[in-house]
Amino acid sequence: MLETRLPDMHRIVGSHDVVMITLDALRFDAAQRCFERGELPVLAPHLPADGWELRHTPGSFTYAAHSAFFAGFLPTPARPGPHPRLFALEFEGSETIVPETFVFSGRADIVGGFRDQGYRSICIGGVGFFNRRNALGSQLPGLFEESHWQPELGVTAIDSTARQVALACERLQAAGDQRCFLFINVSAIHQPNRHYLPDCDADGLDSHCAALRYVDGEFAALFAALRARGPAFVIICSDHGTAYGEDGFHGHRLAHETVMNVPYAHFVLSP
Asked: What pLDDT, in 10s, does the model give residues 250-265?
């Protein structure tokens, strides 16, 4: 039997801003460790009492995962399914569309679907697949009406999340009364992340967690800006994890549990 614990997305789309935040490369075990240690004061109040939901990513690296996300296939709960989806595109025979699912008609991506519903689509890029420096780096941000990337938003900038949040707040204000579909690809947790831990000379799980603590602190301003506009439905998750030598694996684009297990949450921010 199909499990349904979805909000009715027909009540959300059109009345709420919709925000999708991908914490690029964040591992589930790192996210949960930070939660259990009380190190996420901004995010924790919006998570379930036991922390992040464990899910499986549809892709083991950024491009693959986001291609699935923008087609309506978010990370899947790590338990037997099938599991209903928040958003979907018209697809004959889908077993994961339920009455609560918002189905976008005549579109190949949900970004265009939100535009059809009157939303302004905004992309705040982070890692290289959003940098618009070449054809591949233009594919995903090209789905949006406006997209933004500069090196100061990328993986090597120690204050990247602060800059991404400031830009997002600026673009939300510029949108006025128009509802927004805001997407942010947070780059800070992706390698290199050693600069978030003093005297650290190599990336590892500890610096990975330190990066998440930094990111959490910067979200306060974003959440305040969203509340000031009215209700917002927020989806926050990782696109994939990364390995730091477990079972001999390093990095991602591989099917190891450190890569495929990702944290997920969705919640409503009310004024």
From this structure: 979 999 999 999 999 9
Tens-digit pLDDT profile for residues 197-221: 999 999 999 999 999 999 999 999 9
Q: How would residue 82 be classed by pLDDT, with cut points 50, 70 and 90?
A: confident
To the question of domain 9-269 being in CATH 3.40.720.10, the answer is yes
Q: What type of residue is 4?
A: T
Q: Which residues contact 185 (CB under 8 A, 6 or more apart)?
A: 22, 24, 62, 66, 123, 124, 125, 126, 127, 129, 130, 239
CA 71 to mean position of chain CA atoms? 14
pTM above 0.85, yes or no: yes
For the CA atoms of 31, 63, 190, 151, the dihedral, rounded to the nearest 10 degrees, stands at: -140
Helices 160-174 & 205-229 angle (0-180, nearest 10): 20
Residue ranges of the domains in the chain? 9-269
